[in-house]
């Protein structure tokens, strides 16, 4: 069976039942438990450069001031906004550390449609195999949303239409 048809079959089964093969929704979290973040208005992928905490000097107001954070990094604490020209003290007593904030370099930015957990079938939304809705079925997610469970998509596309 080809990859295409395997994915399509998986998608069809788990959209109906929430389970397929070794896939199961048991124990998976809901979107609000994983910092699910709606798409930006311009639907640009999320990265430090479009986060309200990023400083043009390549720093993040939530991380240690001496840590270099490029505009192409991203962490779990992204909030949309305008970049800042200069550092300012926003009253952070305990800065985030990269080991726990999820800080990583992702040049193209992150969104559901470049996440390995995303499956798209031609609708405006896709399905996430890593989050569930209130009925414990794979959650519907916007292709330009994101969450803390994002993982780089190693495949070319998760398109299964
Ligand atoms: S490291 Fe996280 S909080 Fe800081 S600018 Fe980047 S996305 Fe925003
Ligand atoms: S597809 Fe990926 S980034 Fe989007 S909600 Fe699911 S785990 Fe999070």
Give a description of the structure.
Helices cover 12% and strands 16% of the residues. The protein is an alpha+beta fold. The chain has two domains: 3-40 and 111-141, no CATH class; 48-105, no CATH class. It has a three-stranded antiparallel sheet, with helices on one face. A hairpin with a 2-residue loop joins β1 and β2 (23-24). Residues 1-5 and 156-161 have low confidence and may be disordered. Bound molecules: iron/sulfur cluster (SF4) (2 copies).
Please sum up the structure shown:
The protein has two helices and nine strands. The protein is an alpha+beta fold.
Helix content: 10-25%
Say which molecules are bound, naming each kind only once: iron/sulfur cluster
Structural class: alpha+beta
Q: Which strand-content bin applies to the residues?
A: 15-25%
Compute the number of strand runs.
Answer: 9
Kindly list the characteristics that best describe this protein.
three-stranded antiparallel sheet, 161 residues, binds iron/sulfur cluster, 2 domains, 16% strand, 2 helices, 9 strands, alpha+beta, two-stranded antiparallel sheet
Write the layout of secondary structure elements.
Elements: H1 3-17, E1 19-20, E2 23-24, E3 54-55, E4 59-60, E5 73-74, H2 98-101, E6 104-105, E7 118-119, E8 126-132, E9 138-141
Antiparallel strand pairs: 1-2, 3-4, 5-6, 7-8, 8-9
The protein binds iron/sulfur cluster (2 copies).
